[in-house]
Structures are given as structure tokens and as C-alpha cells.
Design goal:
Elements lengths: L1 E9 L2 H12 L5 E3 L2 E6 L4 E7 L7 E8 L2 H13 L5 E8 L2 E9 L5 E10 L4 E2 L23
Parallel strand pairs: 1-4, 5-8
Antiparallel strand pairs: 1-5, 2-3, 3-4, 6-7, 6-9, 7-8
Length: 149
């Protein structure tokens, strides 16, 4: 199983949930404060919504959800083999899930992640030491360590 992920910044989370539920004919798989995600079967898509100001930037980041940590490791090997700079995060808590992932940046600084979900989590982001951090920042200029999901 693999599916493309599209993470969007939305100004009104409830309005966006209503719209995307109608558009894709499925309710969100997870809703938390300022956050929702949809696991859409047809077309295979993981749609993630971050509520609040979008500051004129709708796309937060893009990704590919894969089935296992081995798939993430295979992506790392392939991306490294292509000469792309990667940033690896293992067992990171991000977007209400524990994940293994690798980040890469496209030619126009678009953020891509290849990730697998290991477990559910109660927090949006837990940084090293257990302190909350600015996960899934709306800023494209934010460092990878403050981005996720």
C-alpha cells in the first residue's frame, strides 16, 4: 500500500472538513484540535488539513505514505542513490502519530516526505525531551525539524 499525501493549510478547519467530506464521500479518519486527516480509498490519497491562517500558502507539504519502515529505508536508499539530500526521522511523534520518515526538497523548495505510521499519538508533535514543538509549520521556510506529517 502506498498513497500520495497532500497536506493543506486551511483558514477554517470545520468548513474544510465539510467540503472534503462531500468531495471525496468519506469522513475524516482523525480529527484533533487544529488538525484533520482523511484516508481516502478512491482515489488513494491521504489528505491532511491544518486549521488556522494559511498566510496565502495553501500547500503545507506533500508526501507518500508507505506500508512499513522497510519501505521508508528503501526510499532513503533510492533517493540517496539519486544524489538527493535527505533528512531522516525515526520514531518521531508528529501529527498525532509516531512515524518513521525521510524528507527531501524539490527544485522549488517544495517539501516532500516518505513516511509510515507506527502508532497513534495524543500530541501533534513531541520534540526531543518530550516538549511540544511547532509541527507542520505553515511556513515553507521553517526547518525540517519543525515540519511534519
Amino acid at each position: 500500500m502506498a498513497r500520495v499525501q497532500l497536506a493543506l493549510n486551511v483558514t477554517d478547519l470545520e468548513e474544510a472538513i465539510t467540503f472534503y467530506t462531500a468531495l471525496f464521500g468519506t469522513p475524516p479518519a482523525k480529527v484533533r484540535p487544529g488538525y484533520a486527516n482523511f484516508a481516502i480509498a478512491d482515489p488513494p490519497l491521504k489528505l491532511v488539513l491544518f486549521g488556522g491562517s494559511n498566510d496565502g500558502v495553501s500547500i503545507n507539504h506533500l508526501g507518500v505514505e508507505v506500508a512499513s519502515s522497510a519501505d521508508v529505508a528503501a526510499a532513503v536508499a533510492r533517493l540517496d542513490g539519486e544524489g538527493l539530500e535527505t533528512t531522516i526521522e525515526e520514531e518521531t511523534t508528529c501529527c498525532y502519530a509516531v512515524q518513521d520518515k525521510v524528507w527531501v526538497f524539490g527544485p522549488d523548495a517544495e517539501r516532500w516526505e516518505v513516511y509510515t505510521v507506527l502508532a497513534d499519538a495524543t500530541d501533534l508533535k513531541v520534540a526531543a525531551g518530550g516538549e511540544g514543538a511547532g509541527c507542520c509549520s505553515n511556513s515553507a521556510a521553517a526547518p525540517v525539524s519543525t515540519q511534519c506529517c
